[in-house]
Amino acid sequence: MTTATGRLTFDSLDPATGAVVGTHPIQDAAAVRAAVAEAGAAAVRWAGLGWVERRRRLLDYKAVITRNIAGIVATVHDETGKPEADATLEVVLTITHLDWAARNAHRVLGPRRVSPGMMGANISATLEYRPLGVVGVIGPWNYPVFTPMGSIAYALAAGNAVVFKPSELTPGVGVLLAELFSEAVPEHGVFRTVTGLGETGAALAGDPGVGKIAFTGSTATAKRVMAACAANLTPLVAECGGKDALIVDEGADLPAAADAALWGALSNAGQTCVGVERVYVVDAVYDGFMGELTRRARKVRAGEDYGPITMPAQLDVIRRHIQDAVAGGRAVLGGPESVRAPFVDPVIVEDVPEESVSVREETFGPTLTVKRVADVEEALEKANASAYGLAGTVFSGNARRAVELARRMRGGMTAINSIISFAAVPSLPFGGVGDSGFGRIHGADGLREFSRPKAVSRQRFALPGMNLTSFTRGQKELDRLVRLVTFLHGRRKR
Ligand code: NDP
């Protein structure tokens, strides 16, 4: 669409009705460049404020978000179609992360003395984490507040300015988040949103003024973003998709496990990067678990308990995966007829061959494949046999075994006897391995992700007869050094 001024715009739609809920400019490479340049100047002012003043402003931002929960929830609901209760949960979780990032940035990143070691006895060594300048955040639509704010809050707390490109499906949420920041912190222009389609994101990733890109989205797009970043050696944190598994062990609380599997699979219509897509249940408890699962699943309704599929093109993927699953396995609930655009009713299929696309590729819909396995070792082997490695879940009656399984599960996060509980703990890092990406948001690692370590070594006094970094150095100094290193490191010691 072109406005009277000749500016290109695009519409944001309510996915449930198709109604236009907003119109936003398509910002081109020049507009992105200008935003990054302005953010670069703001970054200097923001970094210059120091820890205490930044913390105060970020806590003000948190308060403004908290006071505007209703407005944010309404915008998320309008643009994604998700129930307002789910959107509320998303915003509340975001608030706890913003609070943690603001309160912990100084402790995690501030200057500290580190031991110089025996060989550096005359050195005072300090380490601190400096901001990168401008962080470009490229976000998805499925959790349009929680997911990008996992980067934005931590990047701001680390002393960076942020230019945010929200998904073209949720631009209104992105604009609102930046507007609320300006309300709390009017003087700096530290956090700005640019709207547009994929090209706007590509321009941000390729802008030489950006110190780091925080990308959240599909693995395929992450590869394109990485290629754009390569032109300027811009570092990247990539939070991509997943095919997360839930393991049900002997002695597990079966009603709780079924409840968690169902919510993990169906909430947000399955459009959750850390949603449950596969379940592996040990033989001894399989029938009990399936009874609990299907009884509960029959009561869940698309359009009531969860919303529509936000991105119309995803309906084709979901339909294809359901067809593939029922062709190879046994439909327990629903089937291809469950797709009634824009909604998809719950689908559960058991005993689908492991090599099927519905078991291997991210479905991003309200579907679940369930497999009977002999024991937890087989469950773990199958759960880990994925190119993705984002998160996972273990339900077990044996706490020790559950922890051991969790540690061996491929992926960045595992929840035990609960579902995605790690996401609600701000001090825990969040991110994946393999096709699920690299780098971490949240927690101390998430703060460090948006900063660079700065090492300073100050010589407090000269060591007599030990000036090793000089052309005046003689054999005697070298002999002394070898004697010292032999004394310190030459013996077999534990
Ligand atoms: P996409 O990969 O389609 O898009 C992600 C973002 O990248 C959007 O803002 C998109 O803009 C932008 N983009 C598209 N093309 C380019 C390009 N060439 N250069 C730069 N940016 C570009 O993902 P979705 O929005 O569909 O999100 C769903 C995916 O995100 C799923 O795979 C899901 O698993 C994953 N995800 C991962 C999370 C995690 O933390 N690991 C959390 C949430 C989701 P536009 O929308 O305008 O095309």
From TrEMBL:
<feature type="active site">
    <location>
        <position position="239"/>
    </location>
</feature>
<dbReference type="InterPro" id="IPR012394">
    <property type="entry name" value="Aldehyde_DH_NAD(P)"/>
</dbReference>
<dbReference type="InterPro" id="IPR016161">
    <property type="entry name" value="Ald_DH/histidinol_DH"/>
</dbReference>
<feature type="active site">
    <location>
        <position position="273"/>
    </location>
</feature>
<dbReference type="InterPro" id="IPR016163">
    <property type="entry name" value="Ald_DH_C"/>
</dbReference>
<dbReference type="Pfam" id="PF00171">
    <property type="entry name" value="Aldedh"/>
</dbReference>
<dbReference type="GO" id="GO:0006081">
    <property type="term" value="P:aldehyde metabolic process"/>
</dbReference>
<protein>
    <recommendedName>
        <fullName>Aldehyde dehydrogenase</fullName>
    </recommendedName>
</protein>
<keyword id="KW-0560">Oxidoreductase</keyword>
<dbReference type="InterPro" id="IPR016162">
    <property type="entry name" value="Ald_DH_N"/>
</dbReference>
<dbReference type="GO" id="GO:0016620">
    <property type="term" value="F:oxidoreductase activity, acting on the aldehyde or oxo group of donors, NAD or NADP as acceptor"/>
</dbReference>
<dbReference type="InterPro" id="IPR029510">
    <property type="entry name" value="Ald_DH_CS_GLU"/>
</dbReference>
<dbReference type="InterPro" id="IPR015590">
    <property type="entry name" value="Aldehyde_DH_dom"/>
</dbReference>
<comment type="similarity">
    <text>Belongs to the aldehyde dehydrogenase family.</text>
</comment>
<feature type="domain" description="Aldehyde dehydrogenase">
    <location>
        <begin position="9"/>
        <end position="456"/>
    </location>
</feature>
<dbReference type="InterPro" id="IPR016160">
    <property type="entry name" value="Ald_DH_CS_CYS"/>
</dbReference>
